[in-house]
Amino acid sequence: MSKTEVKTPVLMRDGISEVSVHALALRLKSNWKPFNIGQFEQLILPPLPDLGLSERIQLVRQALKEALPDDFRKAVSIMVDSLGPEIPEHGLENIDVAGPNGFIVMSQTAYVARYGLEYFDLSMAAFYQMTRRFSAEGSIRYFILQHEQQTLKQLDSWVHDDNFHVRRLVSECTRPRLPWMIRLPEYVDNPAPVLKLLNKLKEDPSLYVRRSVANNLNDIAKDNPALVTATLQRWNKKPPSKEMAWLTRHALRTLVKQGNPEALTLLGYPQSIKLSVEQFRAGPKRLVLGNELKLRIKLVSSEKKPVPLMIDFVLHHMKANGKLRPKVFKLAKKMIAPGEVLTIEKRHPMRPITTRKYYSGRHEVELQVNGKIIASDSFNLQV
Fold first, then answer.
1. Rounded (10°) CA dihedral 298, 304, 310, 316
2. Could you tell me if 277 and 374 are in contact, meaning their C-beta atoms sit under 8 angstroms apart?
3. How far is CA 86 from CA 30, 82, 102, in A?
4. What CATH number matches the domain at 275-382, 3.40.50.300, 2.60.40.10, 3.40.50.12780, 2.40.128.280?
5. What is the tens place of the pLDDT at every residue in 233-292?
6. Which parts of 81-177 are beta strand (E)?
7. What CATH number was assigned to the domain covering residues 12-266?
């Protein structure tokens, strides 16, 4: 590739392509001679280019139903025997999503979720093998909804599995708000069964698993912040290891951004500080879209010992209805010494972006330190 040539990024939907479909067909044929490769590919390939990832997953799932035996027990046995090699001992980051361990596996887990609810043990055995190739985190959630206690018992038996992809499945599939997957409303309201599993995974030797635990807690915190902070307080009662300290920070990231006092206290940021604001200025007062908002901050500590500060600013954007909507931006983490004068300057671009529409009018800016608003200013944006 030349220096001027730009490599086209691989889209997630391309994980299910003509190449991966044909590779799956060949593996299925090798394990069940009546399998009709031509019929299977004809069901999938013509409409494939116009479909997104989730639609492609379901299209392959439907084709599997038509091309494999009607008996779920025979069909799932053929699929499991046709799986690609297991994922090596690392995460999914380096997996070829268009290969045998890619998104094509999700079509097979979707098949199990759709047609295997009456065959619990057989379906769990299939998920166990499939998650060792990619992940069954989305499909197993249908079993949580339909067979909660049985599935929880199965997940509990997997928390000590030798394969960390299986252990990670326990945490990932129970996330109440797992992105792009069906929600688990009962665990949004009451995540106690989830926390029971996470408690057994919190000190897992694999960072891959602990990251999933932290992400699960971050999900739970969106609806049950006090429960998450209380759980982490309990987990941190003894001097925390560096692994537990990392998990705690990662799990509290949403609450920290919101300025949750219990979360910030857990991370060592005190809520009561003798701190004076000598200056907080946002300008220019008339800002044309496309230019930079400039912040100037001067803080003075009256404490008798050094104090850690988490400094953020909250920008209240004008919306179409004339109301303001806040968004928190990270500014700095500082240790301020007794009597120290801390000066911070920040340039924040106010440029058109695809994820936000700007409107003319008064915008407010607030200074947030350790979760508390301690100063404010405003400017007028001209679009």
1. -50
2. yes
3. 18, 12, 11
4. 2.60.40.10
5. 999 988 879 999 999 999 999 999 888 989 999 999 998 899 999 999 999 999 999 999
6. none
7. 1.25.40.290
